[in-house]
Write a structure and sequence with these properties.
The structure holds two protein chains of two kinds.
Chain A lengths: L1 H28 L1 H16 L3 H28 L7 H16 L4 H24 L5 H20 L4 E2 L3 H8 L1 E2 L2 E2 H19 L1 H11 L1 H6 L4 H27 L1 E2 L7 H12 L10 H20 L7 H27 L1
Antiparallel strand pairs in A: 1-4, 2-3
Helix pairs in contact in A: 1-14, 2-3, 2-13, 3-8, 3-11, 3-12, 3-13, 4-5, 4-6, 4-11, 5-11, 7-11, 8-9, 9-11, 12-13, 12-14
Chain B lengths: L10 H21 L6 H26 L7 H17 L4 H25 L4 H20 L4 E2 L3 H8 L1 E2 L2 E2 H19 L1 H11 L1 H6 L4 H27 L1 E2 L7 H11 L11 H20 L4 H35 L1
Antiparallel strand pairs in B: 1-4, 2-3
Helix pairs in contact in B: 1-12, 2-7, 2-10, 2-11, 2-12, 3-4, 3-5, 3-10, 3-11, 4-5, 4-10, 6-10, 7-8, 8-10, 11-12, 11-13, 12-13
The chains are: A mainly alpha, B mainly alpha.
Chain lengths: 333, 325
């Protein structure tokens, strides 16, 4: 008897609980936008000129992070990841800088991007042909390439480039930096390539289920290798843009590219399981990361805290993803 | 009946590694001057011990089918914690305990995230890696912290009965862990979770408990490795353990414990650790600059992993063919 009374009383509570679940799921689904808004509000409260600050971050800091994070995102989409982007950026931009300082600007940039693609191809071959786990292969390559840059530069720096080269990073058009235009044209190309073409479909399929994709006749080795080549080329592009911006090529460039890119990719919502997410998600992830860094700078937090903060961000974004999947399942039942 | 576990899949795996070690020693003794001396042998053994103690923890993680990317940063963190406390006049016992506990706490976090929250093990430990590294950097403010403690110096460089303290300590820990993985219920649970987590859970093993204990042990062992590194120079800095996780993973892989989990064991890890430490020692004795060493060690490790993976792939393919027949 008692039980039936309790059941009747519980009915409205169940509805409330269902609504609570729906609300939590909604919050988790749009958590990225909410986080971004909170960070923006905090930084705007502290900054002296909020609008100028936001414009600076978007047009001068975000493009670099965006370009190399896209590469990481693509690698994550195939179910792997690319930890070598930092050293690839350093190696290829230093190699390109040797030519650019001699006056061969276009040739230097082309060589730089080509070297990036070749290093990426090597990563891809290690992963597909030698079947080494992606993070071991790219982490090992990170060591090797970083060592190679140290040998190549021998502790020296290359600086004082010509204005013709520096214009690619310092030019302005309609009040926005040329960097932003470069980043957005890369974004548009990638969006088209991975959203509208067969190759893009194959990439998503490879990430979701590599065995099934292989059995349906797709050359998954080719897909993965090309994705790592694109990743390497994008890292090299980011590297050469950094060189143009800082007017200096050095072996230490890009020490924490991998960490930032992974954080941006994960918080953007691209799943490490592969096949879910995309470069569009990463744009939001990158905005969160650059505004977070900016916010820490404005609040005068010591730069040494950055590694710690990035680690926490990666953890939080992984937890959010987990919770969202949990609530989604609970609502469907 | 006590559970009996095959620690090595096949004798020939390790036989190949022994041939590799002998070849490496012959090459190094020709190419590197002073390689074949008693003094250098002790040095190799010392590096071997530090690598082995970290790789022992890593073996537990890889046997579970997971990984511990935070090992190197935990080493830096424990070295920094210990040396900072010593520099501020804290008693050596507390300083060492704090160092070890800091590693244990990071391990606990790893175990919680992987075992209870079921996060992707790579992401979780990669995040704790940067958390530990960040904490170490903040704690030491980017500086080198030197200590004047004689006990710490003894831990790093002292000898008992003509053999380095580090070697004694590692030998004891290694034998203990060998017993734990091969002869206890906990070890059996690790192997069965590595084989299939689903089956292990259905057969009543509390998987989260095993994950947490294994990661805490891995964290503590890495922390001890970090204290050894700090003792060697009697100082600590935030990059002291950089790259050790890579060396430890390579050690475990070469030692015949694949990423799939549930296969291999600690015996192979010791052989792998010896191989890698001979390699590192030889390359640094050949008179390369640090930049070259950085690249060469990376290349050498990558090639060894490559050869190892290729051999395993062939073995797998042959097995498949045999099953098909």
């Amino acid at each position: 008897m008692k039980r039936s009374v309790g059941f009747e009383l519980k009915q409205p509570r169940l509805v409330i609980r269902q609504n609570m679940k729906r609300f939590t799921w909604f919050v988790l689904k749009y958590s990225r936008i909410i986080i971004l808004a909170v960070i923006l509000i905090v930084s705007s409260c502290v900054a002296q000129d909020p609008l100028q600050n936001i414009k600076n971050v978007i047009s001068l800091q975000a493009p670099f992070v965006m370009i190399y994070s896209f590469g990481m995102t693509l690698a994550v989409l195939t179910g792997g990841l690319d930890l070598s982007i930092g050293s690839v950026a350093a190696f290829s931009s230093c190699a390109g800088a040797f030519l650019i300082i001699e006056g061969h600007i276009v040739l230097g940039i082309a060589v730089c991007i080509l070297i990036g693609a070749l290093l990426g191809m090597f990563n891809g071959i290690l992963i597909t042909r030698a079947k080494i786990a992606p993070f071991i292969a790219t982490y090992g390559m990170d060591w090797v390439i970083r060592g190679a840059v140290y040998i190549m530069m021998g502790g020296a720096m290359i600086y004082h480039f010509s204005d013709g080269f520096k214009i690619i990073a310092e030019g302005m058009l309609f009040g926005l930096s040329s960097l932003l235009y470069i980043a957005f044209s890369i974004f548009a190309v990638l969006l088209f390539l991975f959203g509208k073409t067969i190759f893009g479909r194959n990439t998503y399929m490879t990430g979701a289920n590599i065995e099934a994709t292989k059995l349906s006749g797709v050359d998954t080795n080719f897909v993965i290798t090309v994705v790592y080549m694109i990743s390497g080329a994008l890292a090299a592009t980011a590297g050469i843009l950094y060189v143009a911006r800082l007017d200096c090529a050095e072996a230490f460039l890009g020490r924490n590219f991998g960490l930032i890119a992974l954080a941006a990719t994960l918080i953007g919502g691209t799943s490490l399981q592969g096949g879910k997410g995309g470069v569009g998600n990463t744009v939001i992830g990158v905005l969160i990361m650059v505004f977070l860094i900016n916010c820490l700078n404005i609040l005068r937090v010591d730069i040494l805290w950055q590694d710690f903060v990035f680690g926490v961000v990666i953890l939080i974004s992984a937890m959010i993803e987990k919770a969202r999947a949990f609530y989604e399942e609970a609502l469907q039942n | 009946m006590k559970p009996k576990i095959k620690t090595l899949d096949a004798g020939k795996d390790i036989a190949g590694l022994f041939i590799g070690i002998v070849a490496l020693i012959i090459i190094m003794s020709i190419a590197a001057e002073g390689f074949l001396s008693w003094y250098n042998f002790q040095n190799v053994l010392k590096d071997f011990s530090i690598l082995l103690i970290v790789a022992t923890g890593m073996t537990l993680a890889i046997l579970l089918g997971k990984i511990d990317m935070s090992a190197g940063s935990v080493m830096s963190l424990s070295a920094i914690v210990t040396t900072i406390l010593l520099a501020n006049g804290v008693h050596i016992a507390f300083a060492l305990a704090a160092g070890v506990i800091s590693g244990g706490l990071i391990g606990l976090l790893n175990g919680y995230l992987v075992g209870v929250q079921k996060l992707n093990h790579f992401v979780a430990t990669f995040a704790t890696m940067s958390i530990a590294k960040g904490l170490a950097l903040v704690a030491c403010d980017g500086d080198i912290i030197s200590s004047d403690s004689e006990v710490l110096l003894f831990i790093g460089t002292g000898k008992i009965l003509g053999v380095f303290f580090i070697i004694w300590f590692t030998a004891i820990v290694y034998i203990l862990m060998l017993y734990v993985t091969n002869r206890t219920k906990f070890g059996y649970e690790i192997y069965s979770i590595g084989g299939s987590e689903q089956v292990a859970m259905l057969s009543g093993i509390k998987t989260y408990r095993v994950y947490i204990i294994a990661y805490v042990i891995a964290g503590i062992l890495s922390a001890i490795g970090g204290i050894f590194l700090a003792g060697k120079a009697n100082s600590g800095n935030a990059t002291i353990g950089d790259g050790y996780e890579f060396n430890a993973i390579a050690t475990v892989l070469i030692g015949g414990t694949p990423f799939d989990g549930g296969k291999g064991g600690l015996l192979g890890t010791a052989v792998g650790a010896f191989f890698i430490s001979v390699l590192r020692n030889g390359i640094s004795l050949m008179g390369f600059t640090p930049a070259w060493q950085y690249a060469l060690i990376g290349i050498a490790i990558l090639i060894t992993i490559l050869v190892d993976v290729l051999i395993n792939e062939r073995a797998k393919r042959e097995e498949k063919r045999r099953v098909a027949l």
